[in-house]
């Protein structure tokens, strides 16, 4: 499978936009797109490890309401299952983040 991410880019003036990249048996990838000052509200990922790779723009990811992480293009970020994540576009150009969710068994 080959997906050209630029073909999925589509911003929304009112709120963040999400496009499905692929969906497998235990994983799923999405492309998150935020205009400047838009945010993806905090939400938990109880059953998923989260891998983020910003493609363009800059933003801040808040993890578990306490840790702020600068999102830099072409850098990989990982958060374990159970993390709560919020993303804000803090830059002056659109922010694109490729996010892969990997299902894990919780004991």
Question: What topology does this entry show?
Answer:
Blueprint: E1 17-23, E2 27-34, E3 39-45, E4 48-56, E5 59-63, E6 67-71, E7 77-79, E8 83-89, E9 95-103
Low-confidence stretches: none
Strand content: over 45%
CATH superfamily: Jelly Rolls
Q: Would you count the extended β strands for me?
A: 9
Radius of gyration: 13 Å
Tell me the major beta sheet: 5 strands, antiparallel
Instruction: Name the helix and strand elements from N-terminus to C-terminus, one letter apiece.
Output: EEEEEEEEE
Helix content: under 10%
Give the second-level CATH assignment, the architecture.
Sandwich
Number of domains: 1
What gross morphology would you assign? globular
Distance between the termini: 33 Å
Mean pLDDT over the residues: 95
Structural class: mainly beta
Task: Output the CATH topology.
Answer: Jelly Rolls
Oligomeric composition of the shown chains: single chain
Q: What spatial order of strands do you see in the largest sheet?
A: 1-2-9-4-7
* Tally of separate helices: 0
> CATH class, please?
Mainly Beta
Task: Provide an overview of this structure.
The protein is mainly beta and 107 residues long. It has a single domain (12-70, 86-103), classed as Jelly Rolls, CATH 2.60.120. Helices cover 0% and strands 56% of the residues. It has no helices and 9 strands. It has strands at 17-23, 27-34, 39-45, 48-56, 59-63, 67-71, 77-79, 83-89, 95-103. Strands 1-2-9-4-7 form a 5-stranded antiparallel sheet, with no helix packed on it. A hairpin with a 3-residue loop joins strand 5 and strand 6. It is globular, with a radius of gyration of 13 Å. The model has no long low-confidence stretch (mean pLDDT 95).
């Amino acid at each position: 499978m080959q997906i050209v991410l630029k073909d999925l880019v589509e911003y929304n003036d009112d709120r963040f936009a999400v496009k499905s990249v692929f969906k497998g048996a235990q994983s799923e990838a999405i492309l998150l797109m935020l205009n400047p000052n838009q945010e993806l509200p905090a939400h938990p990922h109880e059953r998923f490890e989260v891998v983020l790779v910003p493609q363009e723009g800059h933003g801040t990811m808040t993890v578990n309401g306490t840790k702020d992480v600068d999102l830099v293009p072409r850098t990989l970020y990982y958060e374990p299952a159970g993390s709560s994540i919020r993303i804000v576009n803090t830059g002056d150009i659109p922010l694109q983040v490729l996010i892969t969710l990997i299902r894990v068994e919780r004991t």
